[in-house]
Amino acid sequence: MSASLFILANRLVNDPSYRPFLALIKGIRNGIVYGCKIRFPHALVMTFLFRNGTLAQKVKAIFKATKTHAANLAKFVFVYKSIRLLAKITFNEIKQYHTLVAAFIGGYLVFGEKNNVNEQINMYLLSRILVGLAKLAQEKNIIPNTKQPIFPWFGALVWAIVLWIFEYHQHVLQPSLQSSMTYLYHDSNRWNSIKNLLVYNK
Question: pLDDT tens-digit profile of 40-67?
Fold first, then answer.
């Protein structure tokens, strides 16, 4: 019985008529797995480096951040792929504006809630978008494609702006970035013994 069910299940998952709907399930699965892989190590390191509290509070914060990241990716994948599937069923094709609309709706519904995880994901994407749009503008000859290396100038500009903001308008930066920069640039100016000069921070 179990062997015949396995054969039937394999037939169903490979049936082309079911593939678009099964892709929604696979998308949810991949969103959860990817969210856990990305967020868990990040939350683990950042929590133990910069967060105060008991061990239980730290563990709870790590799992909460991981759960939020994984759940949000899974939800977004489901919304995005569902809307594109509806467009395909309705119009027999997916046009570029269908992709924009699907991602816009998913972004609003899932990543529009302001929390630390969503803020980090959106900021991460924004930086990648800016670099990608610059490359696309060069490909389309909107901006000149210079032979001189651009990346050193990009790095210089990014670091000049972020350190200026940190030193003079720190409150507008994301809390985790404030913590990281405080640790690197301000805490390194404070010590009163050899121990908290070389062994530990404070």
Answer: 999 999 899 888 899 999 999 999 999 9
Predicted TM-score (pTM) of this structure: 0.78
Give the pLDDT score at 80: 97
SS3 letters across the chain: CHHHHHHHHHHHHCCCCCHHHHHHHHHHHHHHHHHHHHHHHHHHHHHHHHCCCCHHHHHHHHHHHHHHHHHHHHHHHHHHHHHHHHHHHHHCCCCHHHHHHHHHHHHHHHHCCCCHHHHHHHHHHHHHHHHHHHHHHHHCCCCCCCCCCCHHHHHHHHHHHHHHHHHHHHHHCCHHHHHHHHHHHHHHHCCCCCHHHHHCCC
